[in-house]
Amino acid sequence: MSGNSTFVSPFYSPRCLAAAAPAGRAQLTHPGKAILAGGIAGGIEICITFPTEYVKTQLQLDEKANPPKYRGIVDCVKQTVNGHGVRGLYRGLSSLLYGSIPKAAVRFGVFEFLSNKMRDESGRLDSKRGFLCGLGAGVAEAVVVVCPMETVKVKFIHDQTSANPKYKGFFHGVREIVRTEGVKGTYQGLTATVLKQGSNQAIRFYVMTSLRNWYKGDNPDKSINPLITGAFGAVAGAASVFGNTPLDVIKTRMQGLEAHKYKSTLDCAVKIMKHEGPMAFYKGTVPRLGRVCMDVAIVFIIYEEVVKVLNMVWKTD
User: Solcar repeats span which residues (predicted)?
Assistant: First the structure.
């Protein structure tokens, strides 16, 4: 009889392993949990990192000024604080916050939905499939949230640099944009945004998936410390910055108040190259690098920790 016991044990082992392996966790990371955890992570992250986003956008828009208003990052911060106080660095936060929460929610929700379907029988998601899932998540967030949200944000920040700002707040600004330009006015630069977000998330999730698989090795059950998750996120963020800053510059120009100067995304790229040279495509890289590394690290840490809590209180087996 004891022989039967020893033979039963191996049959239980795969089931127990499945419950603890990434496949099990992927099923527990139900898209609903991913949407909630992503939204929480996105909201907290943007409140921490917005000043660097503000400076990056100002420097990119300032490129067209003759002579330029700012001499660099530090000068931009000094002039903004002197003219508007520290709160000036948070002008436009409301428009970004309203978009950042659903953006992260859509991103993680779509990623988990796709990755749950693309894992192998052991529950492992390889880096190539991680790339494809990230691409899908990036395109979804671009169309549903990012394009209209970024268009409003850039117009808000650009509006502040004018002698007589016309937008009094988020909802007033949206009403004015829709009234004068129609809904189309909130979808300027859609092609550039889809290219930027799609490549952004494809690169980030590819790097994150690769690093996670490398760290776990042959032990898919190995837990990852939040600090290591943050370090992996920072590396993924840096990779995405160097991979698509030119698209970010084009997107910002296409969504500014002078977007009417460009006929299309391609026309914008050609004009920047012709009149300003190739280095103009990397304007704002340093402030963007700092923001994105911190952004991605914070988002992944908070997301993973919130999912752990949700797994304890929200059973989706």
Answer: 29-117, 128-214, 224-309
